[in-house]
Amino acid sequence: MTYVIAEPCVDVLDKSCIDECPVDCIYEGDRMLYIHPDECVDCGACEPVCPVEAIYYEDDVPEEWVNYTKANVDFFDEIGSPGGAAKVGKASHDPQWIKDLPPQGE
Ligand code: SF4
Ligand code: SF4
């Protein structure tokens, strides 16, 4: 089990959550951020600071966004488990269906 970032983060990328994570397991993609499912220690520190309520405990992801649980896994197909987002920096990719989402927000 892990925490998951869902659709409200897309095109927002405000990054408040990154500062809260004690294990630096929140990674930056092109259009959203992703929580590493193996590196997350389930502390919950990130969830309340997200200004758009994009972060959910895996069991609590709203039905409409359950696909994001998989997106937070698939994002790491390319980069594996680096053990810290700071080392990696911003990635220029997202899972294909995230890339294909229409622009979010007004
Ligand atoms: S705080 Fe929320 S919107 Fe900002 S990057 Fe983290 S998950 Fe995305
Ligand atoms: S739950 Fe804790 S360890 Fe997991 S991403 Fe959030 S702040 Fe990091």
From TrEMBL:
Keywords (A to Z) from UniProt: 3Fe-4S, 4Fe-4S, Electron transport, Iron, Iron-sulfur, Metal-binding, Repeat, Transport
Asked if Repeat is a keyword of the record, the answer is yes
Taxonomically, what lineage is the organism?
Answer: Bacteria, Bacillati, Actinomycetota, Actinomycetes, Pseudonocardiales
The keyword Ligase appears for this protein: no
Function in brief: Ferredoxins are iron-sulfur proteins that transfer electrons in a wide variety of metabolic reactions.
Top-level division of the source organism's lineage: Bacteria
Q: Which InterPro entries match?
A: 4Fe4S_Fe-S-bd, 4Fe4S_Fe_S_CS, 7Fe_ferredoxin, FdxA_Actino, RnfB_subfamily
Q: Which cofactor does it need?
A: [3Fe-4S] cluster; [4Fe-4S] cluster
Where does the record place the 4Fe-4S ferredoxin-type domain? 31-60
**Record PANTHER family:** FERREDOXIN, OXIDOREDUCTASE
Name of the molecule in the record: Ferredoxin
Region Disordered: list its residue ranges: 84-106
Entries under Pfam families matching the protein: Fer4 (PF00037)
The record describes how the cofactor is bound as: Binds 1 [3Fe-4S] cluster.
